[in-house]
Design a protein that fits this description.
heterotetramer; A: alpha/beta; seven-stranded mixed sheet; five-stranded mixed sheet; 39% helix; B: alpha/beta; six-stranded parallel sheet; 41% helix; disordered C terminus; binds thiamine diphosphate; binds magnesium ion
Chain lengths: 327, 340, 327, 340
């Protein structure tokens, strides 16, 4: 156990996994220089055969990952920013998400696509989209969003060892976040949520970058004797619905925090699942704290206004607790 | 004596002839089946273009990779795919090579190195580049071949692949099947300049070849495949050919105005690669008319057997429709919605 | 008023609008030959300047639409199949959906993207995706899904006259559907739902191709004295939430039918909105009838199994009506 | 007497000099502001490449269109964008040219034909092609110019644009700013062969030009823009240049190992287009040292005024953050979520 930044935890996971499995090949734009630090040192350690800088051509590299995986490699493909996933979307949506199904399971596609996702650093609209709802809707790719450095390491290892295409989305601006990271080879199975804080009054589901403001809001409310249970699903596909439903069945109330535009967000989807499967347990409306259906602006004051923050989470929780069925 | 001055032994020539005939007769069967309303989905036939797939795949083993197109039956069969499995697939049956999940546009057999047909025009280009990367890492001389159309040559991903394959010296062979049309648009209206030339700025060697001459294709592919196996990098072959049937089998039902001259089609029928090759084999004394007739006979049996197999195969079970989405079974994923 | 096929209604709308506004330019792959019939005759009528066949290059054409619109044209851009929207996704998500916002509203982007969407014809996974949830999540594009020939005409006119990027998604296999279409210049404002059938027992929201099975299910249930209100939102972005909420407040029960993969579907999103805004009115769980999170298979028997059908809709309605709060 | 045998009148030469200096001083200001932590987001400076934007835009009026890149300040200013509006934008202020919604990577002014900087590498290519289509339909001789980097030249959309522009004879000028790097990757590692050559297979004329020589750029652009205005179709110019600053202003904080030789950077500093042009103007008797000094003075005032304007501008109001998503206000759209 040692205190590490999230990006270091990712770097360790990549290093250890590439050490462990010589069939892993990693490529992407400037993975040698490593803008974010996640791929730092890999080129030196594993050489130019297994670690390759590509030209700027997302449409090709996202599909090359599929071809190389189909031909027997385990692939890590760096897409850099979430928005560039749109640039490489064709092969992601039409090939990676479908090739196994269309061929009746003839092949495995062990691919980990890496990208930072979301806003918070005045990188503006073309570098700040949270792309997980779009990916989740494709059906054929798994989606992982770590909420802590330890989770980042354990989930990235699981993603790499997984035999399916997995998107590992690191929250933009969270690479520097520090936390305890186990030294051992801990692998966190995809599809297991983490209850980050127990509580009996309300279930607060928070995804990726939103775990931090969620925990802060829960802390703040604890001062008022309000006990919020914070659940971090950790992976969106597969989704550990049982943990969420179990929590809601105990608390009767649900708020969701998702750094996605509201329409067709993961928050909406989980809300819908709960409104279907735990309807009888609900005693108040299910509230979502999401990004409005707009782009992410540049100016910090504007960006803060559209990204979910602690106050909005608190307000949503208070409103949910205060809600009474109209007479 | 070898055909057209190639170094091809007689057996190989006859094998290529046999494959071309197999592709043709399989597709003629599919054309009839389609007209009879027996096929659930659309089919794009390769009739007239068989020499390209056969001339190229003759150089490949099951360990080499190919990617194909929406017009993929020919590539599948030329690379050694099972005719019965293909037929059952296109019929939408449980014993289809993809269990009825893929259909005509997705026939694939990874055990034979067939990454598969593709419904996305240009979709195979990146896949083949990735397979070439894997082949290079394997280091045992495998190659990846990408078949694509002249229409697909206008997808930017082709140039991205040329760039990366050139930089990394990937064992990749890009085979453009220029059949003169991109759906219903004649090439001249949608394709500027020369496709083969598009490889040059990247330092990738490119040749144009008569795609209706299987020996010429074989020769061009021979050089390119050898280059790739020896680690000298990618090549491009532009094979000039023609599809003598429609873009898609039922097109007359929705394309109300002709998009090409019947005379042009007729002229190309005159260059049909199969009779042309047959004449040559006979003229050069490499095969007798009787031998070629025997090929027809054996192929007819394969086609009949494929139809019998496909017709005898059951429909897939509805309960399996969610299919094989993931190799690693997802934990905790929500059960099928709508189940109430 | 005359009986017409949906595709004819679209063709009329295109013809009338191009006649009306000479600044409209239309392009796409084989729009002259017209695979679906929607653009039939336009090339002859308006000539090769205004109606252009493009090469196969979705990444370019989706972005050309933005450039031409920014430079003052009204654009109709044909993307053919919904899956090819993924191929052209970069410019759609990064440019069309953002350019106006990023530049503080300096420009309008009057673009209508046409595509068929969804399955039902054994076209298999790469020609059958329902792409509306992905588009709706982008925030910056409107999404229209007509449920009848008359709506197709009125909504397509509205889409073309709209000053924003609009995706007009025609349900695959519904082009042949016939219905009464007004001869007059009827324009249906985007964001107005249509109550296709009134009823007091349950609200059934059905989108695009799903309107037909929804109406059939409602018909069948009427025989048992069950009165289902069928609401067709007609446009997903903007969404006429008021009509939906109003209906649910009357009926207390909601079932949604959406030909989208379940995760992050529009069905999920509307369910979430209702579970938030009309919670007190709900007397039963909100059920979704959607496509499971898989690809669309080729064989008809498989495809029927994954696409929502009349029986599934009926079953969901019956289950919702039968539901009793556990004691 | 004209510089380097061009037909450029003295006034035009001085105007180009002035614009280059303006771009340089504005960006030097931004570099200081960035180091001082005054800029909320990343900035990619154009220092060393000014001759390209200026040499090209000198041919354009407000009615012509340009698209630009993540390194877009130079294009914005060369095309006549307002320095104060740009500065305020990069400061994230309400009076920014985009109201603080866009920032450095999205400076745009449509009234000046500036479709804008772009955070997507290669993103401007399709936009410029579309603008060229609109210009062609307008039929009044407008052109569209697309600036893009050597890294962007590896995006397939470039070839898609070459194809369509060639087929349709669009009034499009593609200007590749080859500064030797694609982020931290030297061109040789990611760009095969020659970029200019990539235009040839499409029949699009292409020239390579010294991008640090504004007169040479002017001349190349002169021919290309004339061609476009006369309806003869697209051209490509590859301007060889170099960025003497980092890829992005704060790169030393995360790029721990050098990716290029300091000696190489020094050598290119010796070819700095501004002093080089100054020497030439003086040597050819077209300007006196005092005149050039006066340019510095007037530019310094513009920069100071821009800073003053930007600093004096308020932050945008949080309540406006949803901005101008749609031009036609959506009916019945759900109100902002999370409002409880
Ligand atoms: C990305 C994409 N765009 C468009 C289509 C529709 N489409 C199917 S085949 C075809 C023409 C392909 O032409 P070409 O590559 O020359 O192959 P050919 O049909 O001539 O064999 C088109 C446009 C598609 N399937 N995928
Ligand atoms: C689609 C996309 N991929 C990757 C990036 C990240 N990125 C920003 S600038 C850059 C390098 C661009 O190189 P070049 O086009 O030569 O322009 P230069 O920076 O040299 O001016 C990259 C890879 C991006 N912004 N957009
Ligand atoms: Mg073709
Ligand atoms: Mg560069």
């Amino acid at each position: 156990m040692a205190r590490k930044r999230l990006i270091q935890a990712m770097n360790e996971a990549l290093l250890e996994e590439m050490e462990r499995d010589p069939r892993i090949v990693l490529f992407g734009e400037d993975v040698k220089a490593s803008l974010f630090g996640d791929t730092k040192g890999l080129w030196k350690r594993f050489g130019p055969d297994r670690v390759r800088d590509t030209p700027i051509c997302e449409a090709l590299i996202s599909g090359m990952a599929v071809g190389a995986a189909a031909a027997g490699r385990r692939v890590v493909c760096h897409m850099m920013f979430g928005n560039f996933i749109y640039t490489g979307m064709d092969a992601i949506a039409n090939q990676a998400a479908k090739l196994r199904y269309m061929t009746n399971g003839q092949i495995k596609l062990p691919i980990t696509y890496l990208a930072v996702s979301g806003g918070g650093r005045s990188a503006a609209a073309q570098h700040s989209d949270a792309v997980h709802p779009v990916l989740a809707n494709l059906g054929g790719v798994k989606v992982v969003m770590p909420g802590s450095p330890a989770d980042a390491k354990g989930l990235l290892k699981a993603a790499i060892r997984d035999d399916d295409p997995v998107f590992f989305l690191q929250a933009a601006g969270r690479g520097g976040e520090a936390g305890e990271v186990p030294d051992e080879d801990v692998v966190i199975p995809l599809g297991t949520a983490s209850v980050r804080r127990p509580g009996r009054d309300l279930t607060l589901v928070a995804i990726g970058a939103m775990v931090r403001p969620a925990l802060k809001a829960a802390d703040a409310l604890a001062g008022d004797g309000i006990e919020v249970e914070v659940v971090d699903p950790r992976t969106i596909v597969p989704l550990d619905l049982e943990t969420i439903l179990g929590s809601v069945r105990r608390t009767g109330r649900l708020v969701l925090v998702d750094e996605a535009r509201d329409t067709c967000s993961v928050a909406s989807h989980i809300a819908a699942l709960v409104a279907e499967r735990a309807f009888d347990a609900l005693v108040a409306p299910v509230r979502r704290v999401t990004v409005p259906d707009c782009c992410i602006p540049y100016a910090p004051v504007l960006e803060r206004a559209v990204l979910p923050g602690v106050e909005q989470v608190e307000a949503a929780i208070r409103a949910t607790l205060a809600w009474r069925r109209p007479a | 004596m070898v055909a057209g001055g190639s170094n091809l032994p007689r057996e190989e020539l006859l094998e290529m002839y046999r494959r071309m005939v197999l592709i043709r007769r399989m597709e003629e069967q599919l054309a009839r089946d389609c007209a009879a309303g027996k096929l659930p989905g659309p089919v794009h036939l390769y009739v007239g273009e068989e020499a390209v797939a056969v001339g190229v795949c003759q150089h490949l083993s099951d360990r080499d990779w190919i990617t194909s197109t929406h017009r993929g039956h020919g590539h599948f069969l030329a690379k050694g795919g099972d005719p019965a499995g293909m037929m059952a697939e296109i019929y939408g049956r449980a014993d289809g090579i993809c269990g009825g999940f893929g259909g005509s546009m997705h026939v694939a057999d990874f055990s034979k190195g067939i990454i598969g047909a593709n419904g996305i025009v240009g979709g195979g280009i990146a896949l083949a580049t990735g397979a070439a990367l894997a082949a290079q890492l394997d280091g045992d001389g495998r190659v990846a071949v990408c078949f694509f159309g002249d229409g697909a040559a206008n997808q930017g991903v082709l140039m991205e692949a040329l760039n990366v394959a050139a930089l990394w010296k990937l064992p990749l062979l890009l085979v453009c099947e220029n059949n003169g049309f991109s759906e219903f648009s004649p090439s001249a209206t949608v394709t500027a300049g020369s496709i083969a030339q598009r490889a040059r700025p990247f330092g990738v060697p490119a040749v144009e070849v008569d795609g209706n001459d299987v020996v010429a294709v074989w020769q061009a592919a021979n050089a390119a495949v050898r280059r790739a196996r020896e680690g000298q990098g990618p090549s491009l072959i532009e094979a000039r050919t023609y599809r003598t049937r429609g873009h898609v089998e039922y097109e007359v039902t929705f394309i109300t105005e002709p998009y090409r001259d019947e005379a042009e089609v007729e002229a190309w029928r005159g260059r049909d690669p199969i009779p042309r090759f047959a004449r040559r084999l006979v003229a050069e004394g490499l095969a007798s008319a009787a031998e070629l007739e025997a090929v027809e006979g054996s192929v007819a049996r394969i086609v009949a057997e494929a139809v019998r197999f496909a017709e005898g195969s059951p429909e897939p079970a509805a309960a399996t429709a969610r299919g094989h989405m993931f190799a690693t079974a997802p934990r905790g994923s929500a059960p099928w919605p709508g189940s109430g």
